[in-house]
Design goal:
Number of helices: 10
Helix content: 10-25%
CATH superfamily of the largest domain: FAD/NAD(P)-binding domain
Radius of gyration: 23 Å
Strand order of the largest sheet: 3-2-1-7-19
CATH architecture of the largest domain: 3-Layer(bba) Sandwich
Strand content: 25-35%
CATH topology of the largest domain: FAD/NAD(P)-binding domain
């Protein structure tokens, strides 16, 4: 157990994952120095609200902090406003942008991810926005107040959350999605189809199999030309076409990467004393049997806790059940587990009511559950998914079946 006061853990990144590493270290009794390097000038804040509540017409325009203002002093954690520009793993040191060199005993990469650039002519025109940081959200909030027509490029979580928010504000919203269905990487086809119908019913012009070819200046506004040859006038364009892990600093330090910084089941890199967590980490996923990089608050926070345990000398495997959420207008989507397009879907409840779940079976086992406005199902699913529970589709389809009741029954975990 690491209780040496001479130790120094440096965490590069002040997002969910990085903050949770520091908090968990103190909770677990770590007595060494802890420094968090924050490459943004703002106090550490929560990112998920930026695409939803923050952009509402009645938003107070302030970000939700990850921790209270007294947290860092109370926990004896140094929050350093400065970006790391180099890591020397042989010397166990980190160089900051203004030249300061800090020595470490343990180093944690919590560098997160960056927006994937929009690969089309006109992507850098004024009025074309990405959404990742508080600065991005502030720019969008100012632009929304003067906009009437919005084009969203990409029907992933961020794109649809923003589209729903803009629609609630009374704007005309068009969404262009190059794929055949929205949120295709995260949802089953059954759930994707329901969201397609729902967003269209809410007045969003959701166009599938149609990407962006170019963006042009058109008078005081913009003109978006799609891959189908259609043209859409806009006062504001938002794109969300995925993210890429921020691995440049790790690569320069000689760490192995591949869609993220490669770590073992204890979240350690191959270099002694160096770990990686959250959006930037590629780890062995106990639920999929393959390497995975997950972009979710749950993964960031659970990675943070587990990395702290590794630093404290506990080398158990990371095996938390993945779960996700997305709020799109009045619809709350919650997912437990990771689905695959070939999973067998069984609908629980009536989708017409706007409150239902989809159980996804893989080889007869419960692999994932997608819940729409059904928090009780989601909480139960988080207890059930990944436990090797075999379920019959007919049993699931029975109107009397309840995920909550099944979770309460205390199904034993198979040996």
């Amino acid at each position: 157990m690491s209780t040496n006061t001479a130790e120094h853990t440096i965490i590069i990144g002040a997002g969910q994952a990085g903050i949770h590493v520091a908090d968990s270290l103190r909770t677990q009794g770590y007595t060494g120095a802890i420094t968090i390097l924050n490459d943004e000038v703002t106090f550490p804040y929560q990112r998920p609200p930026l695409s939803k509540d923050y952009l509402g017409a009645d938003s107070p325009g302030t970000a939700m902090p990850l921790r209270g203002p007294d947290f860092f002093a109370a926990k004896n954690i140094t929050l350093h406003a400065g970006a790391a520009i180099a890591v020397d793993t042989a010397a166990r040191s980190v160089t900051l942008a203004y030249g300061t060199v800090l020595a470490y005993t343990h180093l944690v990469f919590a560098t997160g991810a960056a927006n994937r650039p929009l690969p089309c002519p006109g992507s850098t025109l004024e009025g074309v926005h990405a959404l990742r940081t508080l600065d991005d959200a502030q720019d969008l909030q100012r632009s929304l107040s003067a906009a009437r027509r919005v084009v969203v490029i990409g029907a992933g979580f961020i794109g649809l959350e923003f589209a729903a928010t803009a629609r609630v504000r009374g704007l005309a919203v068009t969404v262009l999605e190059f794929a055949t269905r929205p949120m295709g990487r995260a949802l089953s086809p059954t759930a994707s189809d329901w969201f397609t119908d729902r967003h269209r019913a809410d007045g969003i012009d959701l166009r599938l199999n149609e990407g962006v070819a170019s963006i042009q200046r058109d008078g005081t506004g913009l003109l978006v030309e799609s891959t189908a040859g259609e043209r859409y006038p806009a006062d504001l364009v938002l794109y969300g076409v995925g993210v890429v892990p921020r691995t440049e600093l790790a690569e320069a330090a000689g760490l192995s990467t591949g869609n993220g910084i490669l770590v073992d089941s204890a979240l350690r890199t191959e270099v002694d004393g160096v770990l990686a967590v959250g959006d930037c980490a590629s780890f062995p996923n106990a639920h999929t049997g393959s390497r995975t990089r997950l972009e979710s608050v749950q993964n960031a926070t659970d990675h943070g806790r587990h990395a702290a345990r590794s630093i404290m000398g506990h080398t158990s495997d990371y095996a938390e059940t993945p779960w996700f959420w997305s709020t799109q207008g009045t619809v709350r989507l919650q997912i437990a587990g990771i689905s695959h397009p070939t999973d067998d879907p069984v609908v629980l409840g009536d989708p017409a009511t706007g409150k239902f779940s989809i159980a996804l079976l893989r080889d007869g086992m419960l692999a994932a559950v997608e819940s729409v406005n059904s928090a009780a199902d989601h909480i139960a699913a988080r207890k059930l998914v990944g436990r090797g529970i075999a379920l019959d589709p007919a049993t699931l389809a029975d109107p009397e079946f309840s995920l909550k009741a099944l979770a309460k029954a205390g199904i034993p975990i198979p040996a």
